[in-house]
Amino acid sequence: MTENPLSPPEMERSDVLVLFGVSGDLAKKMLLPALYRLTESGKLTVPVIGVAATDWDDDALRRHARAAVAAEGTDIDEEVFARFAANLSIVTGDFADAGTFTRLREAVAGRGFVTYYLAIPPSLFTEVAGALAAEGLNRNARLVVEKPFGHDLDSARKLQDELSAHFDNAHLLRVDHFLGNRAVESLMVSRFANTLLAPIWHRAYVDNVQITLAEDFDVADRGSFYDAVGCLRDVVQNHMLQVLALLVMEPPSATNAQAQGLEKWRALHATRTMDPAVTVRGQYDGYRDVEGVKPGSTTETYFATRMFVDNWRWADVPFYLRSGKALAVSATEVVVELRKPPLELFGGDDIQTPPNVIRFRIDGDTGIRADLMLNKPESTAGPLTVPIGVDFARVLGRQELPYENILHGAVVGDPECFAFFPTVLECWRIVGPVLDPVEPPLPYARGSWGPEAGDRLPGLRNWHELGPRLFDDARPAGERGPGGGPAD
Fold first, then answer.
1. Contact assessment for residue 259 and residue 422, using Cβ atoms and an 8 Å cutoff
2. What's the rounded mean pLDDT across residues 459-464?
3. What fold characterizes domain 16-175?
4. Is 72 among the annotated ligand-binding positions?
């Protein structure tokens, strides 16, 4: 029988998870709470060995894990935590010390297939991968690396070559935690499991698409990290372009990660590179006073641009992307604006009927909402915008943390929640022309929607309003202020 070229090789289930950087910020805020949740649901039964340059012993790691889970707001179940703690242990030592990896080899000896998860700075990826290989720990094992995967197109290729010298592509996974978000996955499900949407998901019906990743908080104590990365590399090149790919891709021909990856690659391959002339960079007031930020820093904390996808389905439809720190609200949302009917039958000279929009809230209070027009009895004000939709938490119950799905996929060998390397390269190609510009970013006030120039992108009539919650009452058309905020 002929082998299906779209069928990916079977990936091994892990018998042990080794977590490099277990004492770090990512582990504390995301990974340890997610591992507790996986233990609670019965999905995590394998030992977890932490590796860190610290003086902790196993009990200290368990106390740290308990504090991390509690800080996430979880009511700890003592029986669940006892099972979780029993699986936790630690190997201590500097990553530059070969003795650390000798002790790790002794810790995993005889345990079977191992997954190594690198929750460490990207500058250490190659060093750790090489040290694992030097001890023979790259055999019968898989390597998982956090983002960012490189800092531009050339460095991404170089990193791939360096890691591939020790782990082949079937044993190398690249994390983009947005792909572990079930609400992000629902973009593809909504498109391809509902014939209600399929006919209108086309340039003939879609006027424009707006993708916003807004955060109302600043960089806090992450100044030194963020200043070296900036908004574009932190969330646009990876998270937002992955969302774009899910919005514009064609239906995959098979239900596996490789087929999905190929369709994402085709979509991104058809996407134009970003144009500096229609790109706005901003920096919130007070950013340069943050500890770890370089004096006179030109790192952007806000980014907005217009993009086009040059294929049969999406030609000439503008895609507007924006993201930033210290903005008016925290919201990650896709707004698909449909074309208006060809005749204005229900408005008038002074009243314009707003367009239909479909909203996907993919972080926080996740859900899907469509704004439809209805006529209010005995009203002369024209049609009324009425939202209909689904609040995922209310209908589906608790949504898994993105890192629950990432870590579960890493352990069982499910590549669906991880970035396909060809799409990583396309993402770097797309952002290439706007990386590291010489012009300084525009200042903007904290709590605003960024610099005013971001509201004047070519062809943009207005950003659709985003509230703190998806089903907050929408303001009537004409009452939106710049950037989607309330009018003055």
1. no
2. 94
3. Rossmann fold (3.40.50)
4. no
CA–CA distance, 440 with 442 (Å, rounded to integer)? 7
**474 has a pLDDT exceeding 60:** no
Give the whole-angstrom CA distance, residue 290 versus residue 152.
26
1 DSSP assignment: -
CB 95 within 8 A of CB 123: no
Half-sphere exposure of 452 (CA within 13 A, CB side): 1
Whether residue 448 contacts residue 484, with contact meaning beta carbons closer than 8 Å, is answered with no
Type of residue at 339: R
Mean pLDDT confidence for 81-100: 96
Q: Is the Cβ–Cβ distance between 131 and 101 less than 8 Å?
A: yes
Catalytic entry in 166, 239, 408, 464: 239
Residues forming beta bridges with residue 289, ordered by sequence position: none
At the second CATH level, the architecture of 179-400+422-484 is 2-Layer Sandwich (3.30)
The CA-to-CA distance between both ends of the chain, in Å, stands at: 68
Phi and psi at residue 433, to the nearest 5°: -65, -15
- Joined together, the tokens standing for residue 54 give 């610290």
Residue 399's Cβ-count burial label (10 Å; 0-12, 13-18, 19+) is middle
Q: How confident is the model at residue 479 (pLDDT cuts 50, 70, 90)?
A: very low
The string of pLDDT tens digits covering residues 281-336 is: 999 999 999 999 999 999 999 999 999 999 999 999 999 999 999 999 999 999 99
Q: Where are the beta strands (DSSP E) in 47-100?
A: 48-52, 88-92
Annotated binding-site residue? 25: no
Q: Could you identify the residue written with the tokens 């134009």?
A: 272
Q: Give the length of the chain.
A: 488
CA atoms of 5 and 258, how far apart (whole Å): 10
CA-to-CA distance for 272 and 420, rounded, in angstroms?
19
The verdict on whether residue 177 carries a ligand-binding annotation is yes
Domain ranges of the chain: 16-175, 179-400+422-484
Query: At a CB cut-off of 8 Å and minimum separation 6, what does 397 contact?
Result: none
Residue 95 marked ligand-binding: yes
The answer to whether 16-175 and 179-400+422-484 have equal CATH topology is no
Closest of 190, 173, 249 to residue 417, by C-alpha: 173
Residue 370 annotated as binding site:
no
Sorted by sequence, the CB contacts under 8 Å of residue 28 that are 6+ apart come out as 64, 68, 71
Is there a contact between 39 and 80 (Cβ–Cβ < 8 Å)?
Answer: yes
- Active-site annotation holds for 239: yes
What is the DSSP-derived secondary structure letter of residue 28? Answer: I
Question: How far apart are the C-alpha atoms of 132 and 162, rounded to whole Å?
Answer: 13
User: Which candidate, 431, 423, 469, places its Cα nearest to that of 246?
Assistant: 423
Cα separation of 176 and 401, whole Å?
A: 13
Q: Which of 83, 7, 79 is nearest to 48 (CA)?
A: 83
- Please tell me the predicted confidence (pLDDT) of residue 400: 76
147 marked as binding residue: yes
